[in-house]
Amino acid sequence: MTPRTVVIGAARERPCTLIVCRGCCCGNPRKYPHADHAWQLERLRAGAEASEGRFVVRTTDCLGPCDQANVIVVQPSGTGRRSGGRATWVGFAMDDDCTEELLRWAQAGGPGLAEPPAAVELQFVRPPPEARARTRR
Fold first, then answer.
1. What is the pLDDT of residues 11-60, one digit of tens each?
2. 32-45 in b/e burial notation, b at 16+ Cβ within 10 A?
3. C-alpha span between 45 and 51 (Å, rounded)
4. pTM of the entire structure?
5. Where on the phi/psi map is residue 109: left (φ > 0), alpha (ψ -120 to 50), or beta?
6. What distance in Å separates the CA atoms of residue 71 and residue 123, rounded to the nearest whole number?
């Protein structure tokens, strides 16, 4: 008997998701005064809106690797995950170039569907142990 894969409706249609950390360190103008954190979030949200549903942006309080702020996790779409894409953690994501590269990658489909930009790939960081444990369950 051949194993059958069943994809739940919500997972099948889930778009690529950029999860933007805005906790104690990421997005903190007191800690990183030279980065325009508000502009970055506005730009990411505007890009998601213009994508007509190809990707979405969410924020979270703290992703964990505070010494690598700003951290953005790029989660694959349902199709990207079925194509082998996995959540990708990007650290030190503060400058305009990185923001634009992340937008282009998400627009192109994100993990599993499009190769990450070379400059962003250099900023990949390892998720904290608790996040790695959650993905193994």
1. 568 999 999 999 888 888 888 888 888 999 999 999 999 999 999 999 99
2. eeebbbeebbebbb
3. 10
4. 0.85
5. left
6. 10
